[in-house]
């Protein structure tokens, strides 16, 4: 899904000095959604195109504490690790 947000030109210009405004808004959305338990760590990773460690680092840089992992998170991590170890040549 694609979402359009209207930002006043003056504000957009000011925000653009810090980089891609669209990315800033996406990251702010991801942070707040994780803080409010609307998104899981995995979903934040998918949304931002990060791996798990990158996502944890991203949250840490923004002073967002990690939620406790649930069984689905652990199962997903185990499946990813398993697929990676099967692909690695010996």
Q: Would you write up a description of this structure?
A:
By secondary structure, the protein is mainly alpha-helical. It has one domain. The chain contains five helices and no strands. Helix 2 packs antiparallel against helix 3 and helix 3 crosses helix 4. It is elongated. The N and C termini lie far apart (41 Å). The mean pLDDT is 87.
Reconstruct the topology from this structure.
Blueprint: H1 9-16, H2 21-35, H3 41-48, H4 52-61, H5 71-87
Number of strands: 0
Low-confidence parts, pLDDT < 50 over ≥5 residues? none
Radius of gyration: 16 Å
How do the helices and strands follow one another from N- to C-terminus?
A: HHHHH
Query: How many structural domains?
Result: 1
As a percent range, the share of helical residues equals 55-70%
The biggest beta sheet reads: none
Span between N and C termini?
Answer: 41 Å
In terms of DSSP E residues, the strand content is under 5%
pLDDT averaged residue by residue: 87
Q: What's the tally of helices? A: 5
* Morphology: elongated
Structural class: mainly alpha
């Amino acid at each position: 899904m694609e979402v359009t947000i209207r930002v006043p030109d003056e504000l957009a210009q000011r925000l653009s000095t810090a980089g891609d405004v669209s990315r800033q808004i996406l990251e702010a959305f991801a942070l707040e959604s994780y803080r409010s338990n609307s998104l899981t760590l995995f979903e934040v990773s998918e949304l931002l195109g990060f791996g798990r460690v990158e996502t944890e680092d991203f949250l840490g840089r923004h002073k967002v504490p990690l939620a406790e992992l649930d069984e689905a998170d652990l199962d997903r991590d185990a499946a990813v690790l398993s697929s990676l170890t099967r692909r690695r040549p010996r």
